[in-house]
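Hi V.,

Quick status before I head out on leave. The structure for the redesign project is tokenized and pasted below; the design run finished overnight.
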């Protein structure tokens, strides 16, 4: 195709195998209008009914409208700082130092400053209510004095936080926390090497397989986000999960406890997915972040 069609129209499939999941509305996607224009249309009650992937700042703007509102989905997302254990001379192979960084960062402050509070603090990689969530775990407590003693003793003076523009405010908040414990922290958005942690956001699109979709991607030997040596303890639990179909959830909880104790990442929060929705529409989001509209109706 040389160019996109200006609109895509989706009609309900009345022959769909599951009659309870047949959409109740005819859906029209606008491929031309910009996101900013679409948000303005929703706010003023114009031709657009739903805009996905709002930033927190955009959500705050929509929340002031009398003709639309913000739908917040506590999605199965995860935002963490991946430690660069693979760089030359990395001190982040040391579990106690990784734990100290987790204690040095006030996660609630980072959530407020970086995402305007739209999210859920996480003890590891799985949010509450999701398959494999380990309710016995708690997020690392904010203990800056304890963290400072450990980091100073290890000679940690400088720290580079790599991020894209979308999480710059998160990185700035983390840098402020680290500065408070005596570390000169720098935020790098250039994409260059040499970073100490890199902010990575991911999501679990699977119904009941967070190991394969999330944990393995960050910490497994073939993971796309991995920046650490292969860890035998992690791989052993992963093999048990793969080979024990009847014991998946308890083993996933075991894996969560292991990842938490090892502090493989700077655990932050699960960013909420935000939607601008016209008052004309009843919209039900999915925690997998997939845009499904079977339950969506027009009032």
């Amino acid at each position: 195709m040389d160019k996109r069609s200006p609109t895509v129209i989706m009609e309900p499939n009345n022959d769909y195998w599951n009659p309870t999941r047949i959409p109740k509305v005819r859906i029209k996607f606008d491929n031309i209008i910009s996101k900013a224009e679409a948000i303005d249309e929703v706010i003023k009650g114009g031709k657009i009914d739903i805009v996905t992937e709002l930033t927190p700042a955009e959500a705050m703007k929509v929340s002031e409208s009398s003709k639309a509102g913000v739908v917040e989905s506590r999605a199965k997302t995860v935002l963490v700082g991946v430690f660069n254990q693979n760089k030359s001379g990395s001190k982040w192979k040391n579990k106690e130092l990784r734990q100290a960084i987790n204690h040095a960062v006030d996660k609630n402050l980072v959530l407020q400053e970086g995402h305007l509070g739209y999210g859920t603090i996480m003890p590891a990689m799985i949010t509450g209510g999701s398959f494999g969530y380990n309710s016995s775990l708690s997020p690392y407590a904010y203990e800056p004095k304890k963290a400072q003693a450990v980091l100073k003793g290890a000679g940690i003076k400088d720290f580079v936080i790599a991020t894209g523009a979308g999480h710059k405010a998160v990185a700035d908040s983390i840098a402020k926390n680290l500065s408070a414990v005596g570390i000169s922290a720098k935020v790098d958005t250039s994409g260059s090497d040499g970073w100490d942690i890199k902010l990575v956001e991911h999501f679990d699109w699977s119904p009941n397989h967070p190991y394969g979709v999330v944990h393995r991607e960050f910490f497994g030997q073939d993971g796309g986000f991995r920046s650490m040596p292969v860890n035998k303890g992690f791989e052993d639990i992963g093999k048990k999960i793969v080979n024990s179909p009847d014991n998946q959830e308890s083993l996933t909880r075991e894996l969560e406890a292991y990842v938490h104790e090892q502090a493989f990442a700077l655990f932050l929060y699960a960013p909420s997915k935000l939607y601008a929705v016209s008052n004309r529409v009843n919209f039900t989001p999915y925690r997998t972040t997939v845009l499904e509209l079977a339950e969506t109706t027009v009032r």
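Above is the designed sequence. The longest helix spans residues 248-262.

G. will cover questions while I'm gone.

Best,
W.
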